[in-house]
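Obj: model holo form, ligand = S-adenosylmethionine.
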Amino acid sequence: MAFTQAASLVSPETKLVGIDKWEPTHDTTLEAAMAPDGPEFGDKSRLFYPVQKIGELVAASKEYPNAELRKSSFDEELASFADGSIDLLHIDGGHLYHEVKHDYTTWLPKLSSRGVVLFHDIAVHNYRHSQVDQFWAELKTGGYPFFEFFHSAGLGVLGVGKWDEIPEPMRLLFMAQKEGRETKIRQWFEFLGDRTARLMVYEWAFGSLPKDDLGRIRTSEHLMTPPRDEDVVEQGEGATA
Ligand SMILES: C[S@@+](CC[C@H](N)C(=O)[O-])C[C@H]1O[C@@H](n2cnc3c(N)ncnc32)[C@H](O)[C@@H]1O
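Output (holo structure tokens):
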């Protein structure tokens, strides 16, 4: 939904497709999922996507004519996308090393010459069910430009298109990382993400976001205003109380 909402604001003509099997798990208790021999990450993640939530997601997506949700597997859907037809691919399926590698290598030919691939959970380390960090460490040495976010389990951004055709804002991001100027950008997004998460907590606690005009204005200011410089510390600063 985040991609859909963002595209509807800045690029309404963008077509979005979300693919997920949304299969019920064999055991969805938290204790079972966390047990050493518990289900794999893909299954465990179902804990956070109960069936009723999927219904809500489908209903919400219907507000966006360019967004489509497909209940299917990534492999089954491969054939329905032409080579070179995808500008932005978000990989967040199976989190074992061989799964994320498989999803990346099978979908890579589908990326356009402007193509960028996102990998969720690159900052989850030493966790049996999540090995995206291991595959990401390999990708970083592969020659493609990249950017790393570390907040909220981490997001890897990989530019797989032709350098001159990758959109300029993405190129600036990649240059910042290459030249060691990435810290403030990271913290800026972390700051905004944190504020969005606080709004979600507000919604959970009170049932809805403020509906009156003042509340709506406050909410949009809250989301859209970049942090002030004094709210952002350089990496390493602020480590001591
Ligand atoms: C960590 S969740 C992320 C879901 C989604 N990105 C989101 O944020 O709502 C991982 C999802 O990937 C799905 N999944 C795992 N492997 C898949 C595959 N091969 N084909 C389709 N879906 C898959 C699981 O069903 C699970 O819902």
